């Protein structure tokens, strides 16, 4: 029938080398040979343009990146992935995600912790596409529409409050109204995050002397009675007003109304490959962490909630979190 005719036409196109995706095979020699044999005997949409060994230490990411640049490959097929530990596997996914390279594995005993596997078949060979959860074009458009409408409306409606807080900060302490800090956003891109200044101007310089008093675990720094916070700052933090200038970041597309919290560069550098998976999403002003206890939660709880959000995103979920954020702010849950 028509399906059979279509498949014959596609196979002829592939045999002529047209429309095939340049692909690098990574794995032990024997397993790579099996995949290459399938690619040669039953041409599919992939063309092997390079091969790389999988050692006991894992994948040589520097060499792989060089090969990707040299060949122009946009796809990696990994065989024998069960040899990789969780950290090595996630480091590979992270490195390829930043280059927008697709990763597929030949099914085996590989752990898929933190990845979003999709079963596909090519050349008659079953493959699992693995990577970080991503929104499709329609989902991205819906989320962006909510962000633009929500942030613009928020800035207009809250403008009297914003102006009043700005004046209060200027009158009660020396220094600028806004605190601007470089933070790590989606795909590890650094951006300038805006907040109302709630601390004295030497706050960042004094953090090193306060590290021993850090009350948070993991990669973040928190103190309930931080001596660097000004009296006005303590008030606006209690009501989460200090976060409102981030609506500017949302309008610029650097942040979303809902998403994982963007962390400072110093905190990002302490994170493991698994922790950095949360950077697959645009950072948000609020999120599951904020409505589930905020600073009262552990760092690992924050990561778990962020990953759950990324894997289960929906427009309804964003709206639900926004509504619950209002409730959490009124109750001062975990705000200090």
Gist of the model:
With 336 residues, the chain is an alpha/beta fold. The chain has helices spanning 2-15, 29-41, 61-71, 86-98, 137-157, 159-172, 203-210, 231-238, 246-252, 265-268, 288-291, 299-311, 315-330; strands spanning 21-26, 46-52, 75-78, 102-105, 118-122, 125-130, 178-184, 190-196, 256-258, 263-264, 284-286.
Question: What keyword list fits this structure?
Answer:
336 residues, alpha/beta
Describe what this molecule looks like in 3D.
By secondary structure, the chain is of the alpha/beta class. It has 2 domains: 2-130, Rossmann fold (3-Layer(aba) Sandwich), CATH 3.40.50; 137-330, no CATH class. Helices cover 43% and strands 16% of the residues. It is built from 13 helices and 11 strands. It has helices at residues 2-15, 29-41, 61-71, 86-98, 137-157, 159-172, 203-210, 231-238, 246-252, 265-268, 288-291, 299-311, 315-330; strands at 21-26, 46-52, 75-78, 102-105, 118-122, 125-130, 178-184, 190-196, 256-258, 263-264, 284-286. The longest helix has 21 residues, at 137-157. The chain is elongated, with a radius of gyration of 24 Å. The termini are far apart. Keywords: Membrane, Transferase, Transmembrane, Transmembrane helix.
